[in-house]
């Protein structure tokens, strides 16, 4: 079945009072695992995300992994969208539509507010002209290499009134907010500020996005959706699942040289992780 625009999946989730999960794709096996897990969960839809870092891993070539993920998505019985994640390079953003993406997240979050606003406004104007839905970030979600502070330090969380002005001034379609989560967490120990999420939902007229969701426990994720989060980004949890399964397989068979058995085990473990998480965020 054809891919579905990200805008459509997010709008349907918002109207139903639930969230749509967006999982990061690094390899073909990630895409296969995400769609298999979504089908097993009977999810209303799922987003395949390919980040600028993943593109860099593939030699700076976006189309091979994007086309592969799109073909996997088209073979799934669940609605699937393709999203370009954490783009800082406008040159890469300008390849998104031709590479099959219906949306992108433009990341100027590490810049001072005025520079972030100007860069994001320009990105949104270009994206809308190309028919793309654009997400941006305000505040600082921790865990990135250039992080100025932890996710729980004073002053890094998103201010509702500033967020409302930022959305109005940039014209973005969704906003990733800093509410206590952090990128690249391997333990689910983040503490979210649900009262802040509610204030942001009241102040901001576009869907709210939670980054760093791998570090958030099930109950906190459910409460975040109830408070107003509509898109939930998950990446590290899949890598933890995959790597753990591969280590287990190679530990049991140290003489193994054919990658298919251990890669298949990693893919199956990622698929189960996806199935379980989708039951939490879109159930």
UniProtKB/TrEMBL annotation:
**Keywords recorded for this protein, A-Z:** Metal-binding, Zinc
Instruction: Please share the entry's free-text remark on the cofactor.
Output: Binds 2 Zn(2+) ions per subunit. One is catalytic and the other provides a structural contribution.
Q: Does the keyword Glycosyltransferase apply?
A: no
Q: Which residues bind Zn(2+) 2?
A: 107, 137
List residues binding Zn(2+) 1.
86, 183, 211
Asked if the record carries the keyword Zinc, the reply is: yes
Gene Ontology biological process terms from the UniProt entry: carbohydrate metabolic process
Required co-factor(s) are:
Zn(2+)
Source organism superkingdom? Bacteria
GO molecular function per UniProt: aldehyde-lyase activity; zinc ion binding
Q: Which residues form the active site?
A: 85
> What Gene3D superfamilies does this protein map onto?
Aldolase class I
Q: What is this protein called?
A: Ketose-bisphosphate aldolase
**Annotated source species:** Streptomyces malaysiensis subsp. samsunensis
